[in-house]
């Protein structure tokens, strides 16, 4: 977070910690890891919470995996249990591009303009990011449901930084998918990958619960 030219740079320390973690046998089968500020995070949960602070990488409310401390020890206290990396069904080695998926955010006074743009652009999928538990303004909910029922997968996510978007009978009836506790940006990546395999609604939803 502080470049080598800055006072109190953390560049060398973070690089050394990352190398130590990558070389540690306990890191095997834990997927992609992020190391910053002596903390080890799994790729699924980590997000950047501050623009400048050295502790900017956070792990939501679920916690980071372990420490790479100044005593030279790399210690893991927990491991990711969701499918990741080589345990997934995705194989994009021969692909030059992924399906197009766009994110549309809800805000006070938002309407259907951006949803209509995604719809007219014949996009492969969309992540609708609502308030709190994924709640949307009435217009966005109505148009988003129309898009979902036309066969474009639409995932409901939340602007909140913690918690999950849950499946309800109404959400199911309207044809939406839910993101579980993935942030909108990560929901987009998962939907892009999932669409390389299927557009089946039920299978897509299973993937959001498994990955």
Question: How would you explain this protein's 3D organization?
Answer:
The chain is of the alpha/beta class and 211 residues long. It folds into 2 domains: 11-85, Rossmann fold; 88-210, 3-Layer(aba) Sandwich (Rossmann fold), CATH 3.40.50.40. It is built from 6 helices and 10 strands; from the N terminus they run H-E-E-E-E-E-E-E-H-E-H-E-H-E-H-H. The strands form 3 sheets. Strands 1-2-5-6 form a 4-stranded antiparallel sheet, covered by helices on one side. Strands 7-8-9-10 form a 4-stranded parallel sheet, sandwiched between helices. The longest helix is centred in the first third of the chain and has 13 residues, at 11-23. It starts with 10 loop residues before the first helix and ends with a helix.
Query: How would you spell out the order of helices and strands?
Result: HEEEEEEEHEHEHEHH
Q: Please report the number of helical segments.
A: 6
Beta fraction of the residues? Answer: 15-25%
Unreliable sequence segments: none
End-to-end separation: 29 Å
> What is the global morphology?
elongated
Provide mean pLDDT, rounded: 95
Structural class: alpha/beta
CATH topology of the largest domain: Rossmann fold
Strand order of the largest sheet: 1-2-5-6
Q: Please report the first level of CATH classification, the CATH class of the largest domain.
A: Alpha Beta
Largest beta-sheet characterization: 4 strands, antiparallel
Give the tally of structural domains.
Answer: 2
The number of strands is: 10
Task: Examine the secondary-structure arrangement and name the CATH architecture of the largest domain.
Answer: 3-Layer(aba) Sandwich
Roughly how many Å is the radius of gyration?
Answer: 19 Å
Helix content: 25-40%
């Amino acid at each position: 977070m502080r470049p080598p030219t800055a006072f109190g740079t953390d560049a060398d320390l973070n690089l050394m910690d990352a190398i130590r973690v990558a070389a540690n046998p306990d890191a095997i089968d834990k997927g992609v890891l992020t190391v910053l500020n002596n903390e080890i995070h799994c790729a699924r949960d980590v997000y950047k919470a501050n623009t400048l602070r050295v502790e900017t990488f956070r792990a939501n409310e679920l916690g980071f995996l372990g420490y790479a401390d100044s005593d030279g020890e790399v210690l893991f206290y927990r491991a990711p249990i969701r499918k990741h990396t080589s345990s997934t069904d995705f194989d994009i080695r021969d692909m030059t591009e992924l399906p197009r998926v766009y994110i549309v955010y809800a805000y006070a006074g938002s309407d259907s303009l951006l949803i209509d743009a995604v719809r007219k652009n014949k996009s492969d999928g969309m992540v609708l990011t609502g308030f709190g538990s994924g709640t949307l303004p009435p217009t966005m909910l109505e148009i988003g449901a129309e898009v979902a029922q036309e066969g474009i997968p639409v995932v409901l996510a939340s602007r909140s930084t913690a918690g999950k978007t849950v499946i309800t009978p109404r959400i199911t009836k309207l044809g939406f998918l839910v993101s579980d506790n993935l942030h909108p940006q990560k929901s987009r990546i998962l939907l892009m990958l999932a669409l390389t395999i299927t557009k089946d609604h039920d299978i897509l939803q299973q993937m959001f619960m498994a990955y």
